[in-house]
Amino acid sequence: MIAAAFVLLALAAQDEGFDKVEVASTKVAEGVYMLTGRGGNIGVSIGEDGVFLVDDQYAPLTTKIRAAVVSLTPQPIRFVLNTHWHGDHTGGNENLGKMGSVIVAHENVRKRMSVEQFIAAFNSKVPPSPKAALPVITFADSVTFHLNGDEIRSFHVPPAHTDGDAIVHFKKANVVHMGDCFFNGMYPFIDVDSGGSIEGVIAAADKVLGLVDMNTKIIPGHGPVADKAALQIYRDVLATIRDRVKPMVAAGKTLDEVKAAGPTKDFDAKWGGGFMKPDVWIGIVYQSLKGK
What we know:
Elements: H1 2-6, E1 24-29, E2 32-36, E3 42-45, E4 51-54, H2 62-70, E5 77-81, H3 87-90, H4 93-98, E6 102-106, H5 107-114, E7 117-119, E8 124-126, E9 137-139, E10 142-147, E11 150-156, E12 166-170, E13 175-177, H6 198-209, E14 217-219, H7 228-250, H8 255-261, H9 268-271, H10 278-290
Parallel strand pairs: 4-5, 5-6, 6-9, 13-14
Antiparallel strand pairs: 1-2, 2-3, 3-4, 7-8, 10-11, 11-12, 12-13
């Protein structure tokens, strides 16, 4: 379901089948939930100060997402923070913005959403977003929200999944939302055309690993709720593959030669089951290490 949904990013959020999507909520910690439907996992903080959302999936799901929030609290959605610009995380911005939610993101998210983008991995052009969908508050390094008895800090990491990634740390609840810097249990999509890199994704994992403890709950962009141990495994798999491909790129090997060497073969059975199949994943790692 997650894999098939994420491919819709390349299809400019076509609405076929959205009526069949069910939005479900999972309690992650006291006052913090994860919503799943179609697209990136949504983080939710609830309390007396209102609702704080991390990402909002696709526009046709806004009504279902709001219903899921209402089932948790009658409070309004005051803030939506986008972890990056992709449509399966920002598609609901326009609807929620028109309803009064304040959209917040890293400054590169607004820049990319303001103009047409091209994602080579899907051979897809993404049109500029409507004005109402654009973040109205942007930050360069970090921003902190003092809401619902918690300190919610969102901080930018150097180019990883894209060049506008934000990690969200719910300090009191001991929860971290990593956006698409973390695909739990599957090879990740890295948007090299948007400034992403394999080195950056590994560095982002290292950053979060230094921030969390064994009790921290980690919400990935895709996949089930994780913990520090799961993030460490993910980081190590990516680093191992990087370390295998990097010397071949340095030696001038072609992409076909790198694929033939099978640098992911011992991981494919477990990690290649998502939409990012091994051949495509090797191509992204190769492109990232080789440079455009």
